[in-house]
Each structure stands twice: as C-alpha cells, then as structure tokens.
Amino acid sequence: MSTPTGEIYRIDWLPGTDLLHGTCHCGAEHSAQDPVEMWEWMLGHPEGHRPQGESR
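^ that's the sequence the OP posted. Answer follows.
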C-alpha cells in the first residue's frame, strides 16, 4: 500500500505458514497471524516509531 506522500507499507504472507509480515516505510517490521492485528499495527504505525538510522 502506498500513501499520497509516497510512503510504502508492505504486508507479505510467509509461504508455508499462517504468518503475515509487515514492513513500514521507516523499516519497522511486525509479524502476526491475524490480518486484523496486522492492519491495526499498520494503520496505527508510525505512532511512536523512529525512522531508520535515527537513534536516541
């Protein structure tokens, strides 16, 4: 899924499993079996995340 700002969010199914693997435009990753959980993470993200390469 891409947004009007050009950010890309990706969800892949891991073949041979029941897992979905999501990747945010910032590089954050999350895995879940439940598609609803995955979309909630995707839509709730990037709240509280830091872009790749940024550290505190």
